[in-house]
Amino acid sequence: MSDLKYLFTGLVSMSMLLCFEVAPAWLSSIFALFFHYPMTVMCRMLFELIEV
Q1: Dist. CA 4–CA 2, nearest whole Å
Q2: pTM of the entire structure?
Q3: What parts of the sequence cross the membrane (predicted)?
Q4: Are 33 and 21 in contact (CB under 8 A)?
Q5: Domain ranges for the chain
Q6: CA nearest 8: which of 21, 28, 33, 16?
Q7: Which distant-in-sequence residues (6+ apart) come within 8 Å of 23 by Cβ?
Q8: Alpha carbon 11 to chain centroid distance?
């Protein structure tokens, strides 16, 4: 189950990186505003998973 979580978070982060690479500056800034909080929560969950 944890392997699935790592795979899913990896796919999400890769797709986000691709979006940041492709998107224009204004779009990526809006994107960053909307996704900053969920990404922070996801990173916190990832760190908790790594610690355990």
Answers
A1: 5
A2: 0.35
A3: 6-35
A4: no
A5: 2-51
A6: 16
A7: 31
A8: 9
